[in-house]
Amino acid sequence: MDTPTADNVYTVSRLNQTVRALLEQALPLVWVEGEISNLARPRSGHIYFTLKDADSQVRCALFRNRALRLRTTPENGDQVRIRARIGLYAPRGEYQLIAEHLEPAGDGALQRAFAALKAQLDTEGLFDPAHKQSIPTLPRRIGVITSPTGAAIRDIVSVLKRRFPALPILIYPVPVQGTGAAAEVIEAIQRADRRQEVDALIVGRGGGSLEDLQAFNDEHVARAIHACTLPVISAVGHEVDITIADLVADERAATPSAAAERLSPDGEALARAIQQGYARLRQGLARTLGERRERITRLERRLSAQHPGRRLRDRAQRLDELDQRLGRAMTGHLETRAQQIGRLERRVQTQNPGVRIRRLSDSTVQMNQRLERGLRERIRRERARLEASARTLESLSPLGTLARGYAIVQPADSGAVIHRAADVAVGDPIRARLSEGALIARVEGYDETT
Q1: Which of 49, 144, 254, 398 could form a disulfide with 239 if both were Cys (CB 3.0 to 4.6 A apart)?
Q2: 138 — phi, psi (to 5°)?
Q3: Please, what is the end-to-end C-alpha distance for the chain in angstroms?
């Protein structure tokens, strides 16, 4: 037997610290499932409890910063699953589990299955808003798929009685949890869709644990809701509970009561709106009738003033007046013509037409002779004037000057006229316009003397 020395003798504290280091290094985070007992909650906010099964137990600690993140409050007797590190409480020399996460047993697997199904259906587009139908604002009848004895149907009926008692409701009774619940919910959705006897569906139940809501996290239920041609409102659980049915439905309501409020109009508000509309309608009709009465009165006055019978009487009287005037005019005209004929007969008798015709014929011959003489004289004077003007124009025309041997000199590239020799330089091309044609030349020299 070795003799103990100062180096190989452990104190209790050193031993516990060494064992704790070995435990923490040897074992990673582990999941442990068991039943809670001896639960304690001191004012520090930490939670201490024992996790046990039929044969063993282990002490556990859940510190305050982790305890604040729990969704549920653990109690003695709860079956839970924890994720923990293994440690050692040195003052008592007890090994313990330092919990980092705690959840009810079974919920972890269900939550992972929920997340996987959610991701799958989202990838397939079942949650796409483009596939969602609009919810009717005033349905003629609504259908409810839920338990006929649950709190959900009582809440829905209560809301409908309060808000709009005239709205009919058709219940499709189904179990909302347990074995076979999902299949019955699917069959009820398909039956309602097939019958088309309601304008919208509420699929719902009250709140519950994740296990209680499994019928509404079922893949086939989700696909039945997505395939339904009726608008579907999902009202499963309370506000904190989100199910696959909520995500795939056309609309989600936080509670069954909220779904009933969404589908039912406010009876009092609707009655007020109807009364206001009726009042506006009466006012509009009264205004329209008043305007129509005024228009009819105006038309009656116009019709009275322009009545065909009255106009016919006026026209008949006017016709009589015109007939009388025509008779007087015709009589006067005939009398005037008779007088004219009498005067003409007397003139014819006093004047022989043959003599007058000969006299007018002689006068015509004389006038023709005078006209010919005048025209010949006028033509002679105008010809003389024209010849004088032509001579004057010819004497003034540049062409006449050119015809006498002169020329107009211009730069070859310009239309200007050269008046002085100094206007050009030796070697410049020039153009000399003659009476007939033109010459192109170049300046060889010049003399400025005239």
Answers
A1: 254
A2: -140, 75
A3: 160
